[in-house]
Known about the structure:
Aminopeptidase, 5 strands, five-stranded mixed β-sheet, alpha+beta, single chain, 89 residues
Amino acid sequence: MNHHTTIDRSPNRFALEDEQGQEMGYLDYHVDDVHYFLDYVYVDPIFRGQSVGQHIVRAALDFAQSQHLKAVPICGYARTVMQRMASRT
């Protein structure tokens, strides 16, 4: 699967696109002074089962870390991905 992650600052969204620019999925978020809230993850049905959601969550977590913000999963899927990542370390 060829894709790249784009950051859309308004409306606070990480979007994953394929090489043709088709949006595969996205993660909506909001921030305060110290927290990075992962509000909602969506993956287009035709791309489900291809780790698109995991890739988006990981990219968002990398961004939060680079901004020295504590990631707080509001979305149940984001919480599950974060728990799986923590259990592997």
